[in-house]
Amino acid sequence: MQPYEMSLAAAAQAIRQRRLSPVELTDSVLARLEQVEPRLQAFVTVTAQRARRAARRAEREIAAGRYRGPLHGIPMGLKDLIDVAGEATTASSRVRAGHRAASDSTVHARLTAAGAVLVGKTHTHEFAYGLTTPQTRNALFPDRIAGGSSGGSAVAVAAGAATFALGTDTGGSIRVPAALNGTVGLKPTYGLVLRHGVTSLSWSLDHVGPLTRTVEDAGLVLSALTGHDPRDPASLPPNAEPDARGLRIGVPRTYYFDRVDPDVEAAVRRAIAHLEELGAHLVDVDIPMTRYIQATQWGLMVPEATAYHERTLRAVPDLYQADVRVLLEAGELMPAGDYLRAQRARTLMRQEWARMLADVDVVAAPTVPLTAVPAGQESVTWADGTAESVSDAYVRLSAPANITGVPALTVPVGHDRAGLPIGMQLLGRPLAEAVLLRVGHAYERTRPVRTAAPCSGSPR
């Protein structure tokens, strides 16, 4: 195994035991990045010199006995909505040409304090306003979409071009690309991870969280982001028992298995059955207020995004990509009453979800209703004849966690008949990330899904 293939936890252990140096790991990741980047286009900016300086500094500190913890010397990518002092934050948009961040975002400052090494800024769908990240290719099947809007972060991790990465999630933008590229993605509880210095799409829906290779890795990154110490329950002990004994797993009777690809449904139901084998109790649940989910998501996101972009939309509208400009202009036409009704619906939805989650510890469901579609495909037609845009399909199962603010974790649980990754989504009570990580870790330890990183060459 090459260093770039190692999980964060494995690399951290090797660094701590002096079997691997941060310089060796960073050089391996940068070499991998150079190999795959021409084909995958995961990065806006590669900060190779900065990374090598940070890796040498980490090596000296560790040699001197100043080990900062499991992220010390670990290469990371940051979605290019996240400010790094002195670097561009382009949001993958011509609107931000020439931009340089004056100061660090809170999340970058915390990861830097933990000793992480920045290898580059990753692509997003322009200003995070989309579910495909069109400029980036899927890490496993480059003729398929990467998913979005944190597509660059998911692809970088899946391809070995970063040991972990950060993304943002407004309607599924961490979980969707994680599921489509076979990685782990965690959207924490709303407000748990501070967003200062992160370009907003919709301030009442935005979240920042990690994309990693394993659930254990996600817990390690979350601990650094939240500023907690090793006693943080979000950090999994290295020898955690792979079981879910005594936990109540909610299995949706409504919504989450409607209009879902048969391969996706079969894989997720097998995974849920395996959780029962690990000691969980399965409980049927009904998802509340499902008819209002799409209207509430759009009713909140569209006007908030338009308000954020108001000045630049009027000054330089032609610099936006057409799909994003249309959505921003549509927001100018939405009445204030629609936004207020969406806020009221969100309040009611949070109350109903709290009642549902009082009866279960975790809800298990598909992350997305279908695997990665071919690049350029704009719609999907379901067996009942219903047609749906690809973006609407991908956001449909992830949006409830953004509206309600509950934490959600996606874990790889298999592949469809074409070999494309399938993700299972675990949703829990606010601030109960530890429970999601426990369940995901239990599944992962006993049903590992390993997806080969791409090799160099032409797309499949």
Automatic annotation (TrEMBL):
Gene3D superfamilies: Amidase signature (AS) domain. PANTHER family: AMIDASE AMID-RELATED, TRANSAMIDASE. It holds the Pfam family Amidase. Residues 24-437 form the Amidase domain. It comes from the Bacteria. This is Amidase. Coiled coil: none annotated. GO terms for molecular function: catalytic activity.
